Amino acid sequence: MKCNIICNFAFRIFMQMTGISATSVSSLDSLIEGCTRAVVTAHEHPDGDAVGSTFAMMRYLRDVRGLDAIVVLADEIPESLKFIVPEEDREHVLSGKDSINSGILEIASADLVVLMDANGFSRTGAIAGALRESTARKVLVDHHVGPESGDFDIVFSTSETSSTSELLYWLMMEMPETSGDAALLPPAAAFAMMAGMTTDTNNFANSVFPSTLEMASALIGAGVDREYLLEMLYNRYRENRLRAMGWLLGENMLITPEGAAVMILRQEDISRFDIREGETEGFVNLPLAVENVRMSVFIKEEDGLFRVSIRSKRGTSARELASAHFHGGGHENAAGGKVFPGDIPSGGDLETYLYNILKEFLI
Ligand SMILES: [Mn+2]
Fold first, then answer.
1. Ligand 1: distance of its center to the CA of 52 in Å?
2. Which has the closest alpha carbon to 104: 64, 139, 133, 81?
3. What is the CATH number of domain 239-362?
């Protein structure tokens, strides 16, 4: 890292918080050295950070360390994020229901499991049981609070970073092969980490730390094409997504007097707009543009329950709301959870249930 004394000091503190130290890096180095088959995984319903960080880690383990590494994810990578994984690498990525059985076989035969972008196996969906039962060595790299550290041999965890992709980047910079030079990363891994950081910060709009900009600067310097990345991330949607967004904001969004915005996308709306997995990404951020909105809640009906995404402005805790009322958690200003049909009092409806919770929470 090229920077001045103050920056170096901030960087040392950052490294201390992440668990990245000379000792932990050398433990990771020797742990990888003793392994041959790796499964890299992340939370269910993978987002850009989950895809970017798992793919980058897989490429590092294959290209740099010579392991037989593969990515296994419980849910399919959204169509809009598939560009992060180049065509020639698709055979090393198992994602979605059709690949669950082969994914579980891979987990059973791996001697190294790396969990990225989730604080524990409980977040990994349909493969959680196989991951827990695996006798492989286990490594966690994550930026959510409350890591389930007991399940892992080595833990790299801090919420003081933009994304898991950023945390992985700094970890890789400490590994002996790169010795701090981003140009020595496998190019596809560098691109994937830039993608994960960019989506998790909402293109540098939130959770940006000095280290985040250092990372971006080094990766652009190393040849990552950010213009191409932005084109692929933000200018390639299907018309349906914008039509659904227009309807949600125009006809569906309700703003309560307490400053909560609520949008609900039900199964019939999903069918009507032909909304596919990943196509509602970012909707939850939009109502925060309204001055008196402190918290935005986006509900999406799915498989007989309601998935809840929450964003909040500084001073209002999305995480608290998610953990207190929606069986979830996350970051201070970006969290998620679920509403099960049984949560709604009999005779009541989802809307009233939500408004009561939000009213009480925001008073
Ligand atoms: Mn993340």
1. 10
2. 133
3. 3.10.310.30
Closest CA to 139 of 160, 155, 157, 159: 155
Contact 71, 95 (CB under 8 A): yes
Ligand 1: centre distance to CA 257 (Å): 31
Distance 223 CA to ligand 1 centre (A): 23
CA–centroid distance, 42 to ligand 1, in Å, is 10
C-alpha to C-alpha distance for 66 and 64, rounded to whole angstroms: 6
**Paired tokens of 258:** 């307490």
Prediction pTM value: 0.88
- 3-state secondary structure (DSSP) of residue 48: helix
Q: How far apart are the C-alpha atoms of 268 and 226, rounded to whole Å?
A: 37
User: Ligand 1 centre and the CA of 50: distance in Å?
Assistant: 6
Distance separating alpha carbons of residues 299 and 104, to the nearest angstrom = 31
Our measurement of the distance from residue 14's CA atom to the centroid of its chain's CA atoms, rounded to an integer in Å, reads 20
Whether the Cβ atoms of residue 281 and residue 78 lie closer than 8 Å to each other = yes
pLDDT tens digit string along 80-115? Answer: 999 999 999 999 999 999 999 999 999 999 999 999
Superfamily of domain 5-234: inorganic pyrophosphatase (n-terminal core) (3.90.1640.10)
